[in-house]
């Protein structure tokens, strides 16, 4: 049987795995031998879609817990995203746009990483220095709570003070919206920074401070943040049962950031929905997420590729790599399989940015130990349009005349892939036609689904994270000791 070396979707999304195949790399027989396992993984994910449960998945307290991430793209009553929840997000965005000067999102892990990607791609690095008009009235955006870094908190607070002084002649008070995002409502990093900003903002006459809490609103979950929100009458968004942190970017905890910058949430979900559709086919070799999972699984298990470098080309893609780190590490890094056997499964994710890391990591990718897959991400039509002129007459500078910077970026990626290929190094490429909400939704969902399929292939629970409990227990005890 012959396999295609790339899958191209109607949307223009491409998964090109040519450089995963061939001599010294994955062979036709490898994929043929995986066919039954891939069919089982397909059926298990279909079952997950239908029943909202994953085989043997339990919550951290050992009780059965649903898995609803496959329901994210469909806006429907009973699903995580409903017509009412989307309307509420829209109203939140409109409220911020007309009433709020700055938003501080406070969260860590799955309650932060996806939000940062949405901001980086939908807003970009100069958002906060743009005037209100260029932001289309949407507020300045800050992220904290992703660390216990006093300096970071103070810097943001100083910046808020700076803008509040700036705004003083126009308005009476600078309106700040604090948005703590925490499913448990008790995460140290999130709460520490929330408390800091709440106190600091409320102390100053320059600020008018509001809070919107994003947390598990189920009273049985016992989120202290929810109790506080109820007591103070704060606006509240829900983190629903069955949606784990790393699978939550396409619902309220992530979408609040999309709403705050005026990103098109429907387009984001449409992209995810079209990817879901494309991954529902029976032919396992034509399902992009399942092929991605199978190729990575084979590369890991049969060819020793225990590291995956996620290398997006373009500055704005750095945080996407960080988001993927959590998705891959927490989902697949498991000591035990679902039968309780010790397997020590997982692939170490390494984020990289092209071309920057070609000058830092590529030496290792090209010549180092042969234990890596380099996963490239390319945006076909990069934003920005720079063609160089010729301000210098010296011969050494002449060749830059007429250089289109986006073409040079693509050339750099092609060169990196070709060089790796020349030494039969495993690499693959995702191509998105553009960096917009639709394609971002497609990619988020593709990666989440890929990880779910790989969990099935490796027979590990992709939805729990028992390993993080070890440090959490120790940290909790130290914290309790410290507070006494
Ligand atoms: O994926 C996860 O479950 C974690 O990364 C959590 O998102 C992170 O620990 C933050 O937890 P919480 O949302 O409860 O504050």
Characterization of this structure:
The chain is α/β, with parallel strands linked by helices and 484 residues long. The chain folds into two domains: 6-54 and 269-468, Glucose-6-phosphate isomerase like protein, domain 1 (Rossmann fold), CATH 3.40.50.10490; 69-263, Rossmann fold. It has helices at 28-33, 35-51, 83-99, 113-122, 150-167, 188-203, 224-232, 252-260, 265-278, 288-303, 318-332, 362-367, 395-398, 405-422, 437-458, 468-483, and strands spanning 6-8, 14-16, 102-106, 140-144, 174-182, 207-215, 235-238, 307-313, 334-336, 342-345, 348-354, 372-381, 426-434. Strands 1-2-13-12-8-11 form a six-stranded mixed beta sheet. A five-stranded parallel beta sheet has the order 4-3-5-6-7, sandwiched between helices. Helix 4 (113-122) links the parallel strand 3 and strand 4. Helix 2 (35-51) crosses helix 15 and helix 9 crosses helix 15 (437-458). The protein is globular. The mean pLDDT is 95.
- Tell me, rounded to a whole number, the average pLDDT: 95
Biggest sheet layout:
6 strands, mixed
User: How many distinct domains?
Assistant: 2
User: What is the CA-CA span between the terminal residues?
Assistant: 68 Å
What's the order of the H and E elements? EEHHHEHEHEHEHEHHHEHEEEHEHHEHH
Rg calculated over all Cα atoms: 23 Å
Which CATH first-tier class of the largest domain would you pick? Alpha Beta
- SS strand fraction: 15-25%
Summary tags:
16% strand; binds 5-phosphoarabinonic acid; Rossmann fold; single chain; 2 domains; alpha/beta
């Amino acid at each position: 049987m012959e396999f295609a070396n790339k899958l191209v979707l109607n949307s223009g999304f491409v998964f090109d795995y040519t450089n995963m195949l061939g001599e010294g790399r994955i062979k036709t027989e490898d994929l043929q031998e995986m066919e039954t396992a891939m069919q089982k993984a397909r059926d298990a994910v279909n079952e997950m879609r239908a029943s909202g449960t994953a085989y043997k998945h339990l919550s951290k307290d050992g009780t059965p817990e649903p898995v609803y991430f496959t329901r994210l793209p469909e806006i429907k009553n009973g699903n995580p995203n409903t017509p009412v929840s989307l309307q509420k997000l829209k109203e939140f965005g409109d409220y911020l746009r007309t009433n709020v000067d700055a938003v501080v999102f406070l969260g860590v892990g799955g309650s932060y990483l996806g939000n940062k990607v949405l901001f980086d791609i939908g807003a970009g690095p100069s958002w906060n220095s743009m005037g209100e008009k260029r932001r289309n009235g949407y507020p300045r955006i800050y992220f904290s709570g992703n660390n216990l870094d006093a300096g970071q908190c103070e810097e943001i607070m100083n910046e808020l003070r700076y803008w509040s002084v700036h705004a003083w002649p126009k308005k009476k008070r600078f309106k700040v919206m604090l948005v703590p995002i925490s499913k448990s409502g008790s995460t140290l990093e999130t709460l520490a920074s929330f408390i800091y900003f709440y106190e600091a903002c409320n102390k100053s006459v320059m600020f008018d401070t509001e809070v919107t809490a994003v947390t598990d609103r189920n009273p049985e979950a016992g989120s202290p943040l929810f109790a506080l929100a109820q007591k103070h009458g704060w606006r509240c968004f829900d983190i629903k049962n069955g949606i784990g942190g790393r699978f939550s970017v396409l619902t309220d905890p992530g979408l609040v950031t999309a709403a705050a910058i005026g990103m098109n949430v429907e387009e984001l979900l449409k992209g995810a929905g079209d990817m879901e559709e494309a991954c529902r086919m029976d032919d396992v070799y034509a399902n992009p997420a399942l092929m991605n999972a199978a190729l990575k699984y084979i590369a890991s298990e049969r060819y020793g590729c225990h590291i995956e470098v996620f290398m997006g080309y373009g500055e704005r893609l750095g945080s996407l790599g960080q988001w993927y780190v959590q998705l891959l590490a927490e989902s697949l890094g498991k000591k035990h399989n679902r039968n309780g056997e010790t397997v020590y499964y997982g692939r170490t994710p390494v984020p990289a940015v092209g071309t920057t890391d070609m000058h830092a990591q590529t030496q290792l990718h090209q010549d180092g130990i042969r234990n890596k897959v380099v996963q490239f991400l390319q945006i076909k039509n990069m934003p920005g349009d720079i063609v160089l002129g010729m301000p210098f007459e010296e011969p050494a500078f002449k060749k830059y005349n007429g250089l289109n910077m986006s073409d040079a970026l693509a050339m750099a990626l092609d060169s990196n892939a070709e060089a790796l290929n020349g030494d039969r190094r495993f690499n693959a490429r995702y191509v998105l036609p553009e960096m917009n909400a639709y394609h971002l939704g497609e990619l988020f969902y593709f990666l989440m689904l890929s990880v779910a399929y790989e969990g099935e292939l490796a027979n590990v629970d992709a939805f729990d994270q028992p390993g993080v409990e070890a440090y959490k227990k120790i940290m909790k005890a130290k914290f309790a000791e410290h507070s006494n």
